[in-house]
What does this fold into?
Amino acid sequence: MDAGKLKTYVEIHRRTLTADDANEAVPVWKNIGEDWAWVRPLVCRELFLAQSVREDVTHKVTMRWRDDITARDRLVIPEPDNRPSRTLEISTSPVDPDDTNVWIEFMCMEKHEDT
It folds into this structure.
């Protein structure tokens, strides 16, 4: 893996519970970190193979090794010029592709505002 491919700045968000004005627990997404990632849409054969395991995946993400990311988290890609951010929900548990604790990879599904 070439570190030069990590060109997309991402925020890592985790769902947490917080109290609202009525002291009711409400879920919110909290930023737990930022990093650079290689985010690429799945195409043709890769998409077919990934969807045979999980039908909703749309992207594959590679990052430097981190042990704090789970399949319950999501990535937010801030966009310039006040455009809406892109959100990628992590669909699979992160894996270490070469068992060296240098990189992690996982599949994601892009979420749109209306879904």
Q: What stands out?
A: The chain has one domain: 3-111. Strands lie at 8-19, 25-41, 59-64, 74-77, 86-90, 103-111. The longest strand covers residues 25-41.
